[in-house]
Specification:
61% helix; elongated; 142 residues; transmembrane; mainly alpha; single chain; 4 helices; endoplasmic reticulum
């Protein structure tokens, strides 16, 4: 190619560099996946804040018991799930893979495990609601 002020290479007008300006496909996918994981983390933070609000209202008795029930036991370990989410957000700016791996493992431990336990604990109540149409716990009327 040509230097700034020097002669150009023979047979080129200087516009044959576009093929080198494309981003490799695996880097494009990395950017796409990062944005998807960020959306999931932000959604998790919103759910976490709702759960925290339910716990605060339940423990401080700001509303009557028939509107907001006390939290189940599995909801307390779920509160720890905010730490892996924040760790995952810290991993993104510098592409720190060790933080991201630690975040994914911790998410399984602190988020998914309490949810599986909670689903098993809630299954008999869901069956009763389906069969008889009676719910014994309400959160703001739902």
């Amino acid at each position: 190619m040509a230097s700034r002020g020097g002669p150009r290479a023979a047979g080129t007008d200087g516009s044959d560099f576009q093929h080198r300006e494309r981003v490799a496909s695996h880097y494009q996918m990395s950017v796409t996946l990062k944005s998807e994981v960020k959306k999931l983390i932000y959604t998790h933070v919103v759910i976490w804040l709702l759960l925290l609000a339910q716990m605060c209202v339940g423990h401080l008795k700001l509303l009557p018991h028939d509107q907001v029930a006390m939290p189940y036991q599995w909801e307390y370990p779920y509160l720890l799930s905010i730490l892996p989410s924040l760790l995952g957000l810290l991993a993104f700016p510098r592409n720190n893979i060790s933080y991201l791996v630690l975040s994914m493992i911790s998410t399984g431990l602190f988020s998914v495990a309490p949810l599986i336990y909670g689903a098993m604990e809630m299954f008999p109540m869901a069956q009763q609601l389906y069969r008889h149409g009676k719910a014994y716990r309400f959160i703001f009327g739902f």
